[in-house]
Every structure is written in structure tokens, then in C-alpha cells.
Amino acid sequence: MANVLINAPKTAKKGELVEIKALVLHQMETGFRAGTNGRIIPRNIIERFTASWNGKELLDMTMSSAIAANPFVSFFAVASESGRIVMRWTGDNGFQVEESVAIAVE
Amino acid sequence: MKRAALALVAVFAASFALAQGVKDERRSGYHDMGPALQKMQDDDSSNPGMLFVQKGAGLWRTPAGAAGKSCADCHAEGSMKGVAARYPAIPSGGQAPVDLEGRIDLCRTENQKADRFAPESDDLLALTAYVAQQSRGLPVSPPADPKLALFRAEGEALYRLRQGQLNLSCAICHDDNAGKKLAGIAIPQAHPTGYPIYRLEWQTLGSLKRRLRNCLVGIRAEPYAWESPQYVALELYLMERARGMTMEGIGVRP
């Protein structure tokens, strides 16, 4: 079950700097740990996180093994026009989650 | 009218004196954390425990078991307020106390006709988190059931029992040496006000049982089996010890 928490303002003034916070449920297994049987647990991480505002790229982030489980990302964007902020997480084992929030700019 | 007002003043004065006389020295582990972690816990959009609360809310409305009923079919929205603040308790018709996880499992086997959750499984933790979150801000208030006293006493005895290769009891760290440091980390007073907690060391949500097992391993004792009544007894005593303290919802701990 994909599980995402996004916190972004519903409305913003034109030109205002808005903070967008995103939290995603993911174990971020590093690929360096041994299981109880002594074997290495295969890596299972989110590799990439992208965010866009009405199709325009805001952020493109590469994640690595050193990032904690349930990664939390917070970033800022200048409110230019009303529309949708789309966030996408992709990773190992075909992990793919997309979530979007609407924002009204006046 | 005037007399009533005077009486009221007297009551206020008395309770004020009482509050002044007995200074509450108890503090949650929350206050021993740095400001960054406190903020992480307080902000629902950065507390990873909220992911489990959200998942639990989904499970709450999902039918399960042969009865095909969901939790929401019997329990109204928001009706779990205060429940986490009073468990463990003895369920009606039962003989022994169960904790919140145990109560959820009882509902599953008796009402939903489903299998029990595996101990410490994600689904059980998520449902527990969803229920516990509804008690945020309420005082810890163990029930007045006199049948609990025996189990609570057993819990206190366990709390004071030296065990393991290090020959330590819970009380030696959490009563006698609380506030001091153990390997650079402040020893908390062990008040179970934020469970289930999101512990950074675990990288996930965990129950009070898991925390107790951690402590037992830490003193080089063999942890009780997952379903042992010893945990419930200890939880009973710890909740009594924390009576009146504020429930934190889903706590974050280092």
C-alpha cells in the first residue's frame, strides 16, 4: 500500500515562497545489512524523487542507501500559477508512487 | 450564593496547596530529546508515525475475517478517544488483562472471525497507532477495576526484579539513575506516554512490548515470549506510574 503524507498550502499569493513537505512510507533497505541467516538483505531503496508544478520541474533528487527509512523531503517553490504539484517516487523492485496536491494562486 | 462562592474559593485554595505541596517530578522522555526531534514529533507532516496512523485509518474501514465486518462497522468514528489512555484493562467476561494490541486481536478473533495479527506486524502497529493517536492530549487514566491490582503488583515486582547477566532491574536505571547518562544518552524515567513510538534506531514504529524486550536484551536477560502475560503486567504498572501524565499520540524517540 502506497502511503504518502504531503503538506502544502492550499492557497498562496502570487510570488510567495511556499514550503512543500512530503513523507513517504518506505523501508529503505540499504543492501549492506545481513539478515538473521547471515545473508545480505538485497537493496530496496527509493532511487529518485521528482516534483513538478504544472509540468514544470521543481526538484529532481537522487536518493542513496544512506537515507533513512520513510524519507522526509521539504523544499520551497515560488508560487507562480494555480495548478497541481505532482510528486513521484521511483525505486528498486519497481517501486513507483505518484501523488499530487492542488494549489490556488491568487 | 456568597457562601457557594466562598466554598469554591476554599476548594481552589485547597487544590492549589495540594498541587504546590506535591511537585510532580515525572517527565516524559520527550523532554530529554533535542529540539529537532521534538519538532519532528510535534509536526504531523514530519512525524513518520503518521504514515502508520494513515494506514491504520484505512485498515479500520476495511472488512476482515469470516464475519466480513470492519472496525468501523461497530465503532463510530472517533469513538476510540481515551481508549489508549486506559489500557491495559480486563475485557468484559475476561479473567486476565490485555493491552491495546491484545484488545485489537480479541476483536479480530471474536467479532471479525479473523486470524490474530502476528506480534509486531505492520498492520497491528498501524491499527494500534490509529487508536492511540485519538488519545493525544488526554491524561493517562488506568481503570479503577480492583481485579487489576493483583496484576499490577506482579508488574511492579517484575519492575524491581534484578535479572540478566548484568543483574539489573528496571528500577535501578529508570528510578534510581533516571536523568543521568548511559553511553552518552539520557536515561529516561520510562513513562509509556507515546506508544506506539517511531524510534529512529528501529527505523520504524514499535510497541511498548518491543521496547521492553529491548531493555531485557540490554541487561542480558532473555526476553519473555511475545505473548507473555509479564509484558501486560509491566505495562499495567508503568501506566499506573504515569497516571495523570499527558498522552503524546505517536511519539518519536532517538
How does this structure look, described?
The complex is a heterodimer of chains A (106) and B (254). Helices cover 0% and strands 53% of the residues of chain A. With 106 residues, chain A is an all-beta fold. Chain A has a single domain (4-105), classed as Immunoglobulins (Immunoglobulin-like, Sandwich). The termini of chain A are far apart. The relative contact order of chain A is 0.32. The model of chain A has no long low-confidence stretch (mean pLDDT 93). Chain B has one domain: Cytochrome c-like domain (Cytochrome Bc1 Complex, Chain D, domain 2). In chain B, strand 1 and strand 2 form a beta hairpin. The model of chain B is unreliable at 8-14 (pLDDT under 50). Chain A binds chain B through residues 1, 3-7, 21, 23-25, 27-28, 68-70, 72, 74, and chain B through 44-46, 48, 50-52, 54-55, 58, 200, 203-204.
Number of strands of chain A: 8
CATH superfamily of chain A: Immunoglobulins
Beta strand % of chain B: under 5%
Tally of individual domains of chain A: 1
Uncertain stretches of chain A? none
The CATH superfamily of chain B is known as Cytochrome c-like domain
Q: Tell me about the biggest sheet of chain B? A: 3 strands, mixed
User: According to CATH, what is the class of chain A?
Assistant: Mainly Beta
Can you summarize the main beta sheet of chain A?
A: 5 strands, mixed
SS-derived structural category of chain A: mainly beta
Helix content percent band of chain A: under 10%
- Helix content range of chain B: 40-55%
CATH fold assignment of chain A? Immunoglobulin-like
The CATH level-2 architecture of chain A is identified as: Sandwich
